Amino acid sequence: ARADLGVLGMGTMGANLALNFADNGGFTVALGNRTVEKSYGVRDSNPDLAPRLVPTDSIEHMIQTLKSPRVVVIMVNAGQPVDDQIALVLPHLDKGDILIDAGNADFNDTVRREAAVRPTGVHFVGMGVSGGEEGARHGPSIMVGGDRAVWERLKPLLEPISAKYEGVPCVDWLGEGGAGHFVKTLHNGIEYADMQMIAEVYGILRDGVGLKAGAIGDIFADWNTRGLSSYLVEITGVTLRETDPDTGQPMVDVIVDEAGQKGTGRWSVIEAQKLGIGATTLEAAVSARGVSSRRRERAEAARVFGDIALPGAQFHADRDGLGELESALECAKLIAYAQGYATLAEASREFGWNLPLGTIARIWRAGCIIRSAFLDDIAQAYEAGEVVNLLQAPSFRDRIEAGQANLRRVVAKAALAGLPVPALSAALSYFDDYRRARGTTNLTQAQRDLFGAHTFHRLDREGTFHHRWPQV
Ligand code: 6PG
Q1: CB atoms within 10 A of CB 118
Q2: Looking at residue 306, what is its pLDDT?
């Protein structure tokens, strides 16, 4: 036995993770894949690392190759393929071995799998890995769940391969059971919201101002030098400035406006709903992808109702106009992250995880898709003291104060111009709802009590009441 760990699944993510373990960790890695040739292919196309890459021909072969206690990392598509791999490898593992699912699992599946594996004495760990292909290869952000004691054993394996933010590894244990995958799911929900808001501002600049892709790319590149500085804003500039080699047009102009999704964004919204958290910007982002996929229907609706972007949209690409958009996007982004964090905080209470919210922000500062300096501010807010909601954290209050008027103007102007801003407007409405001491669900309660005797509470008295309403 000579391999420190095994990686099952030689798709791009699995292969890159294996290469990362060999390269940055200096570990010897057993490679496993259903079609065996792929494992040999990974070794042969990386001659520098070949001495530390051991292709295996079967599960039995991988098991023989691994040092004991064994560590096996599964990196396959979420869903049934994970169950298939577990069924394949588990019978060969011994008590004390560690089996990791490093894919984008639904945390409910992780909870179920951990419970199923536990009686065997094998430790099952659900682990979120973010950073796309590049991250997997050179340094992802890693969100570890499962038993805390197991983390102590995994730490020396994972710290060397993780991203570093000012030298600090972007990996940590976040909580028992499905905590790692839950946090990864919320990371993706926030990713969706952030991307959707960026796309909405792109839409304003394209359809409301009439700018070409390249010019919009320049604006995002400029924004990336200040408060909005982040990987997502950076790649927005890069993608918008790219030219299609075939047609000479901007790349984005030849790409079909139908967004794909693999499920994590949707799960984040479902879980937020189950927890009673209004993650409305995340919801808006998931819904917008759904609407985008109905392209034919949209074309028909555009014919019937007229396309968007009425003339005279009050958006301008001058200094003030761009400043207003930049500030609005910053403000809305803050609200989206606050919603994501509110979901994490509630899940932590509900599932008894004691999620370290500051640490989560810290391990998201580098490696992952939503990485940005802004996450450092979030980490600091959590480390400065108790945070009821990020919107109320002192360091964020001022930013919201500074940005909300701009967000309000942008949403209002977009509405008047017929430009859709589902996530930006969701952020604004949520903020207005959240800060309103006297809401309107007193009416909802009255209605519920009228038609279903659902009862209500009174402002002036303790207790639960039912009123004899006039029946209609
Ligand atoms: C990451 C990404 C990655 C993927 C998401 C979203 O953190 O590296 O989040 O996991 O981008 O799953 O993918 P979809 O947009 O296809 O749902």
Answers
A1: 12
A2: 84
CA of 192 to the centre of ligand 1 (A): 9
The two tokens of residue 118 are 């536990």
Query: Which residue's structure tokens are 């804003």?
Result: 233
Q: Which residues of 376-390 are buried (b: 16+ CB within 10 A; e: fewer)?
A: bbbbebbeeeebeeb
Cα separation values, 297 from 203, 258, 284, 301, Å? 19, 12, 19, 6
Domains of the chain: 5-177 (3.40.50.720), 184-434 (1.10.1040.10), 440-472 (1.20.5.320)
Whether 413 is a known active-site residue: answer: no
The predicted complex's ipTM stands at 0.96
Q: Write the DSSP symbol of residue 100.
A: E
Cβ(188) – ligand 1 distance below 6 Å? yes
pLDDT tens string 155-179: 999 999 999 999 999 999 999 999 9
Inter-residue long-range contacts of 45-52, CB under 8 Å, 24+ positions, other chains counted: 46/19, 46/22, 49/19, 49/22, 49/23, 52/22, 52/26, 52/27, 52/28
pLDDT at 309: 60
CA 208 – CA 435 distance, rounded (Å): 30
- pLDDT category at 1 given cuts 50, 70, 90 is low
d(CA 231, CA 234): 5
Q: Does any ligand 1 atom lie closer than 6 A to the CB of residue 196?
A: no
CA distances from 191 to 143, 283, 340, 372, 468 (A): 15, 12, 10, 12, 48
Q: What is the pLDDT of residue 76?
A: 97
pTM: 0.96
Q: Is 140 in the pocket of ligand 1 (CB under 6 A)?
A: no
With tokens 């009050």, the residue in question is: 314
Res. 395: pLDDT tops 90: no
Q: Which position has the token pair 């996530």?
A: 423
Question: Is 184 assigned a catalytic role?
Answer: yes
Compute the distance between CA of residue 367 and CA of residue 184 in angstroms, rounded to an integer.
Answer: 13
- For a pLDDT cut of 90, what percent of the chain falls above it? 95
Binding residues for NADP(+): 9-14, 33-35, 76-78, 104
* Mean pLDDT, residues 35-57 taken together: 97
- 169: Cβ below 6 Å to ligand 1? no
Q: Are 390 and 338 in contact (CB under 8 A)?
A: yes
Q: Which atom of ligand 1 is nearest to the CA of 135?
A: 8
Q: How confident is the model at residue 307 (pLDDT cuts 50, 70, 90)?
A: confident
* Predicted local confidence at residue 373, as pLDDT: 87
